[in-house]
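ok, trying the design again with the full structure, not the truncated one.
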C-alpha cells in the first residue's frame, strides 16, 4: 500500500447474536494477530453498499441483503512495516443464505487468489491479544448494539 494514498473501503459486520463475521490475520512484522470484517476497496463510480455486495460475492460467494450504514472510520496504521491510511464505510447486513450463520468457518478467496477462512466471533473476544480493525470499529459496534 502506498503511503501517499488514502484508500476508500466498505466492510460489513453481519451482527448476529452478539457475533460478527471476520477474517483473522497475522502481521508477522509486529507479531500481531488481528481480525477484520469482510469487504474491500470501493471502485470508481461504485457506492459503498455496492462494494459490499460485490466483495462478499467475490470473497465468499454470498448474497447480502438489508444493508444498513453504521458509520465511517478513519484508519491510519502500519501493516507489514508499511504505512496505510483508509476511510472505511461500515455496514451491517444479512446473509441471504441463513445456513452461513450456523457454520463456524466460511472458506473465502482474496482478490489475489489467496485463500482465507472467515469465522464468527463474539465482540467480547477482541482484546489486546486479538485486535479488531479498523481502529474504532469495536467502539462503533458497541454504540449501535441494542
Amino acid at each position: 500500500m502506498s503511503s501517499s494514498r488514502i484508500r476508500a473501503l466498505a466492510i460489513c459486520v453481519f451482527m448476529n447474536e452478539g457475533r460478527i463475521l471476520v477474517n483473522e490475520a497475522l502481521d508477522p512484522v509486529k507479531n500481531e494477530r488481528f481480525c477484520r470484517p469482510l469487504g474491500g476497496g470501493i471502485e470508481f463510480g461504485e457506492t459503498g453498499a455496492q462494494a459490499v455486495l460485490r466483495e462478499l460475492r467475490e470473497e465468499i460467494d454470498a448474497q447480502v441483503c438489508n444493508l444498513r450504514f453504521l458509520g465511517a472510520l478513519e484508519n491510519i496504521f502500519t501493516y507489514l512495516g508499511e504505512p496505510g491510511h483508509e476511510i472505511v464505510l461500515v455496514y451491517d447486513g444479512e446473509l441471504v443464505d441463513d445456513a452461513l450463520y450456523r457454520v463456524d468457518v466460511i472458506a473465502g478467496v482474496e482478490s489475489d487468489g489467496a485463500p482465507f477462512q472467515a469465522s464468527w466471533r463474539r465482540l467480547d473476544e477482541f482484546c489486546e491479544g486479538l485486535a479488531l480493525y479498523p481502529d474504532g470499529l469495536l467502539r462503533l459496534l458497541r454504540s449501535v448494539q441494542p
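Keeping the full-length input from now on. The two ends are 37 Å apart (CA to CA).
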